């Protein structure tokens, strides 16, 4: 008999949790329904366990009377029930606003600094900021991607400020109404809290280890589900209180023209000619700037070449002087050799002449 009473008691607790949250579950999506139905199934499985007969005597009839199904005039918390349509018409609607913007600016650094200051002054914060590119020459472009979280009531002011300070090339706004989802999650959380309270009451009366373990396991599951729902509620509350703005910024020299009527041939020809002249003038300016910027490097190169020339010239001059000196010595030796040979020849000739003369006299 006691076993039967305990089983009916746990079933009553689970039924109370289900009925407490039935008001908000009608509009929930499939994921929420699947998760919320897990609680009664788990409780029913726990009810099928073999609890010992000596657990305790519990007045299950009184417990069943306490968890009667709420009437149409009562909600899960004892107050008046609120239908889905009434929730949607309520002034306290949960709206998640998201804005995507693409902007052009000719003063990139100033614009980015002003955006950051504007975000802080409105009480928001920059979730992420990414700047790429550089401004080394006139042809480079810089880009910035900013994800800003702005208080919902200051969103229009922030968007208007961005539009005034730049040229907007693309803008997209979206609003997601999560009022029913929020109410549904909150109802599930409250029903789990009711089940948690009843399980704690049963745990205080349990006097066997087996029953204590079963009740504590279920309490652990309930606490985990409550924390999951609370985390979901906090995330939705943050998204509702702080709207998200995705801002893409591009640095340009000239803003993109607004769409206008089709231009005539003469207008197009004049604009193209002026653009060509402007590009030619910019090319000349870039050449002059690049040449002036290259002058220090050119000066260093000329100095190095001059030093190398002086060294090479000195080496070549020394080699030439050495060659001349060696040639001079060689010439002197050849002249001396020739003179010696001539002298010897002259002596030999003179000796031969004397010998011939002496022979004739004889």
Map the helices and strands:
Elements: H1 2-20, H2 22-25, H3 30-47, H4 60-66, H5 84-89, E1 95-105, H6 108-121, E2 125-132, E3 143-151, H7 155-165, E4 167-177, H8 179-205, H9 209-241, E5 242-251, H10 265-361
Parallel strand pairs: 1-5
Antiparallel strand pairs: 1-4, 2-3, 3-5
Helix pairs in contact: 1-3, 1-8, 3-9, 6-7, 8-9
Concise structural overview:
This protein is an alpha+beta fold and 362 residues long. Helix content is 65%, strand content 14%. Strands 2-3-5-1-4 form a 5-stranded mixed β-sheet.
Order of helices and strands: HHHHHEHEEHEHHEH
Report the span from N to C terminus.
185 Å
Stretches with pLDDT under 50, minimum 5 residues: 1-6, 22-81
Q: Calculate the mean pLDDT score and round it.
A: 75
Radius of gyration of CA atoms, rounded to a whole number: 50 Å
Count of β-strands: 5
Could you say which structural class the secondary elements and strand pairing correspond to?
A: alpha+beta
Overall, the morphology is: elongated
Helix content: 55-70%
* Strand ordering within the main sheet: 2-3-5-1-4
Q: How many helices?
A: 10
Estimated share of beta-strand residues: 5-15%
